UniProtKB/TrEMBL annotation, chains A, B:
It is found in: Cytoplasm. PANTHER family: FATTY ACID/PHOSPHOLIPID SYNTHESIS PROTEIN PLSX, PHOSPHATE ACYLTRANSFERASE. Keywords: Acyltransferase, Cytoplasm, Lipid biosynthesis, Lipid metabolism, Phospholipid biosynthesis, Phospholipid metabolism, Transferase. Belongs to the PlsX family. One of its GO terms (molecular function) is phosphate:acyl-[acyl carrier protein] acyltransferase activity. InterPro entries: FA_synthesis (IPR003664), Phospholipid_synth_PlsX-like (IPR012281). It comes from Antarcticimicrobium sediminis. It comes from the Bacteria. Pathway: Lipid metabolism; phospholipid metabolism. It is an enzyme of class 2 (transferase). This is Phosphate acyltransferase. GO terms for biological process: fatty acid biosynthetic process; phospholipid biosynthetic process. GO terms for cellular component: cytoplasm. Residues 348-374 are annotated as: Disordered.
Length: 374, 374
């Protein structure tokens, strides 16, 4: 019933934008090499100035015979406005990276470039899924949950979202949690300033009603309103919010975690005794770092497009790039994009049914519970 | 020129709501005792069921002769809606706490109760300052700045704010930073999803223009748009945002910091060696805790009212309550409320001037730089 990835064979091909990250193409190629070491089934198409890229790739034996190149001269910079990129972006490495997915040459795309431009070009090149009005960016967030992470979306595709958009985010986030984290029945929370039903903005109250109506047929649990402290918490697996709030929350969390690590390092440098303690404590500290290191959970996934696009952090190091590539690989391998398309299409028709006959639609499809993964 | 606090003498009187916190009045009285130990000039008016409160206070020798009581039977609970409290709240300990400030019996009020109810009753009892359309709640936030903290507002007085409100938040936040953190010329940042001028919502672009126009005459530096990661950063001393975003950001930061501490504790419990390391590392860890412990920076200050109100965290322990009381004490001692009133009044007239003649108003009052503290 669900389409398989368009390319056959055991190899998964990831289309990688070599340009646009803060640290340049060297770090991107290092990240590819890390991924290739861990994963024999991965192949790459690399986009950017071919001559320079061939030299970087040649230094990594593990990449030999696993990379093909697309020579592209232009680059989208961090300062380019999305509107400018929409008009002039087709000659860039970013566009070329996306086009390889559109043409079916690659199973997914990864770029460290400018988020706004990448979203604008992704919408232009890959088009939105039928039934989706606003695509969203989803990130994984270290949390107290068993799986160690929560999904949060939207974290910045669009600064606004109405109730209907928030419902779509809930559906897409639930699909992502099922495929990316293997949760059969993810718990969805709607971000607000309090958990009480009377709190927050009008569109949130509408979204609350809409999402709770679709919980059963879309096979998730709706836990209602959640607060900022639940983003790293264990009451929900998926946190739904508009792109403005989500973006601020993600960056606040990153900033707080990095301040705490910095102060921790400082406090261990404070005296001779504390330096000795830090030597003994080093494995404990590394264990902690592994758990909360943003570069290990690097990668915002664009949801709601015809194809998988992963946005790696602009300041990502090789481990960060590798982790974004791994995410694109996993999603490609699970056929996530096709499953999500099927899910959104079926829910879009249910939404129409529900609007026509609100009482009966709620009971529809409940028997499918647990059978579908998308 | 600036009014002194209404009560004379060297003693500062803080009006304390004994009820409404998660842990009950015992913790509130312990917090008062901690404050009284550190501060010989503090006196209290305590509101709640007098008989029970007298017993709690009698156990603390340091409080002998320093507390007067107001016997009040009713309590605002965490579940009470602000609208319900507006109609029925006048018989509660919360109302009585505020009324002591309104009547001039106390220099400031502290409550651990329901935030929405406390703001609603504060507006009803103390009234907004002339020229303020929406009061705001400001918190201190651990940061990389020299002073160790940033101010952020609004963190939840109101879920919406237009450009004019954001300007008022900037003015009030600047005053608070001058009085609370002794910064002559605070740096103000406006929270957005990126630092580029074209990003974000329409009202933020308007607010950007408004705030930068008033920076000089209101004696602050406007650093423009800042991001979530700048909230614990060092590019701005005051972060201005609407109450929805601010509330989510504060709670996300709290949640992240507490997750990191928890994982840190876990990783030190992991093996015998790491337990030994933690014994050696204990001073380093306590040093860190002291720096980021939310209970040491406990207290949201309500800005824009005729009087000082500090909201202590509902789950605050004695140290948290004591820190909220200390904040109310410091603000009362500096005559902050009166200075802020003067500042807002003068700016309100400047705003009117500026709207009438935009070009000339900008230069006005620049010579006052550094002379006024409000």
């Amino acid at each position: 019933m669900i389409d398989q990835p368009r390319l056959q064979g055991d190899k998964i091909v990831i289309s990688v934008d070599a340009m646009g990250g803060d640290a340049g193409p060297g770090v991107v190629v290092s990240g590819m090499a890390e991924s290739a070491t861990k994963n024999p089934d991965i192949r790459f198409i690399l986009h950017g100035p071919e001559e320079a890229l061939r030299k970087l790739v040649a230094r990594r034996r593990i990449l030999a015979g696993r990379v093909s190149f697309r020579d592209v001269a232009d680059v989208v910079t961090m300062d380019d406005k999305p509107s400018h990129v929409m008009r002039n972006g087709k000659s860039t490495s970013m566009w070329s990276t996306l086009e390889a997915v559109r043409k079916g040459e690659a199973h997914g795309a990864v770029s460290c470039g400018n988020t706004g431009a990448l979203m604008a070009l992704s919408m232009l090149c890959l088009r939105k899924l039928p039934g989706v009005s606003r695509p969203a960016i989803a990130v994984l967030w270290p949390s107290r949950n068993v799986q160690g992470f929560n999904v949060m979306l939207d974290v910045g595709a669009d600064v606004r979202a109405d109730a209907q958009d928030l419902l779509q985010y809930a559906l897409m986030g639930a699909s992502y949690a099922r495929n990316g984290m293997n949760l059969k029945r993810p718990r969805i929370g709607l971000l607000n300033v309090g958990t009480e039903q009377h709190k927050g903005r009008a569109e949130l109250k509408q979204a609350h009603a809409l999402i709770s109506r679709f919980a059963d047929q879309a096979n998730f649990d709706f836990v209602g309103f959640v607060e900022g402290r639940d983003i790293p918490g264990n009451v929900a697996d998926v946190i739904v919010t508009d792109g403005f709030t989500g973006n601020v929350a993600v960056k606040t969390g990153e900033g707080t975690a990095s301040l705490v690590s910095e102060l921790l390092r400082e406090s261990f440098r404070h005296s001779l005794l504390s330096r000795m303690a830090s030597v003994l404590a080093i494995t404990s500290l590394l264990r902690l770092k592994k758990r909360i290191d943003p570069s290990r959970v690097n990668g915002g996934v664009f949801l709601g497009l015809n194809g998988t696009v992963v946005k790696s952090h602009g300041g990502a190091d090789a481990t960060g790039v590798s982790s974004a590539i791994k995410l694109a690989f996993q999603l490609a391998q699970s056929g996530f994009s096709e499953r999500l398309a099927a899910r959104v299409a079926s829910t879009a028709s249910l939404t129409e049914d529900a609007q026509a006959a609100p009482d009966t639609a709620d009971k529809k499809n409940q028997k499918n519970e647990g059978e579908q993964k998308a």
